[in-house]
Structures are given as C-alpha cells and as structure tokens.
Design goal:
five-stranded mixed β-sheet
C-alpha cells in the first residue's frame, strides 16, 4: 500500500510517499510553484500527481498552512497538530515531550503526555518568531541563512518585538560597527528570546524540534540550557508530511 502525505507550508510544500512502513520518496516544491504548475481548479483544487512524477497512490492525506483555506480533492485533510504529533511520535518513539515547530509564518508549541496532546500554544499573528524573520535578517546581513545559524557567542542585543522594526534595529547595529559574527548571534538569540515565553508555559524534560528552524544550531545550543534533552527529529522539515503518511496508513479506510 502506497500512502501520499502533503504538508502545504507557507513557503514550501513538502511531499512524501510511503510504501507500507518505508519512505520511498520525498521532495519539496516552492509553494507558489506548486499551486501554479501542479494544480488546477474544478470546484476544488486538483493536484496533478503525474506532473509530480507520482503515478500510484492508495491513500492521500494533506495538512499544513494551505489546508485551512484550500480544499484539495481526493485528499483527506487533517490538522497540523495531528500531523506533527503523529510524525514526532512515530519518528522518535517518544510519548512524553514538548514539540516546537517553527514554520515559515507560524510557531507551534505542543505538549504531549503519554502520546496524547494535552496543551498547545500557537503564534500565527506575528512573523518575528518565524522562519520568514530569519530569512529577512539574513538578507539584511547579506549572509546565507545556514551560515547565520552557526553563530551563538556574544550576541548583539536586539530588543524589537516586530519583524519589520527588527530590520531597522539590525541595520543600526551594523552601522555601529559590530562584527558579523555578533550580529548573526544576535539574530539567533532574539529568536530564542521570542520563543522562550511560549515554551515556558509547558514543563518537560524533553524538547523535540521540527520545521526549518531545526537547522539553526545556535538556537539548539540556547535551548539545551533549558532542557535535559533536545532532539531534532529526523527529516525535521518533512515531519508534517510524515505524520500525514502515518495517519493515512493507520487510520484511513
């Protein structure tokens, strides 16, 4: 049995194919290109799987940013919370943890106890703690995003709580002559400061990371001071799509 999972992110669409328990393919498509080049509309959004080089699917499940406002024909929609929690549990084997998922335009913090979601906190209104904020700040610094993630020591203090005003504040710090290393560390630490109030609402020894910000090694170093165990989920950016596959395999008729 082949199961297709699609996570419709604000920046990337993550696609995964699973045959029985084995992942047989996974890839990403820019969100705009996905809807423009691989979809059509006939009362509902239709995904042209052949254009994606997908030819045989027994079950198809979707989740993500686009799930809230786009109805995809032939796909079973599930919530992002359900998809990410299923993905986290089945990829790590853990059942007691806090899951932090930093997406392109939102942040999810989910408390899981004995494999059940007991509480959650969402930030969908401000980009200052999201992936888009990091992309914008890397552009201001004219440094590749992954390179910026390497710096955590002696961060420049950045206090603005707004993603737009943070760019102006960062430009001011550049003008003051701070080194690139300190500026990059400042951006990473400012993200940590914005995430910490969300995370502090939940008590757990174990923190799981998914989403693109799981590549941020500086953020991970900061978080390790707060948790006994910080686990980056395998294929962290595909966690939602993986959760869709697990749900399709186990629960879809």
């Amino acid at each position: 049995m082949i199961t297709l999972g699609i996570d419709l992110g604000s920046r990337k669409v993550k696609i995964m194919l699973m045959e029985d328990k084995k992942i047989i393919n996974k890839f990403m498509v820019n969100t705009m290109a996905f809807y423009r080049d691989y979809c059509s509309y006939d009362g509902k959004i239709m995904v042209d799987l052949k254009k994606l080089n997908i030819y045989k699917v027994d079950k198809a499940v979707s989740t993500g940013y686009g799930r809230n406002n786009i109805d995809i024909k032939l796909f079973k929609p599930i919530t992002e919370i359900k998809a990410h929690v299923y993905g986290a549990i089945y990829s790590t084997g853990l059942k007691n943890f806090v899951l932090l998922d930093v997406g392109g335009q939102d942040v999810k913090v989910i408390m899981v106890e004995k494999g059940i979601v007991t509480d959650l906190e969402l930030n969908e209104k401000c980009a200052a703690s999201c992936g888009r904020y990091l992309e914008n700040m890397a552009n201001v610094l004219e440094v590749p995003l992954l390179d910026m993630f390497n710096f955590s020591d002696d961060p420049v203090e950045l206090n603005s709580t707004c993603a737009v005003f943070s760019e102006s504040e960062l430009i001011g710090k550049i003008a003051e002559g701070y080194s690139l290393e300190k500026l990059c560390a400042g951006v990473n630490f400012s993200l940590y400061k914005r995430l910490k109030p969300l995370l502090s609402k939940f008590k757990s020894e174990t923190l799981l990371l998914s989403g693109g910000a799981s590549k941020n090694s500086a953020l991970i170093r900061y978080l390790k001071k707060d948790y006994e165990k910080v686990v980056v989920i395998d294929d962290a950016q595909y966690n939602g799509a993986y959760g869709c596959c697990i749900y399709g395999k186990n629960f879809c008729q």
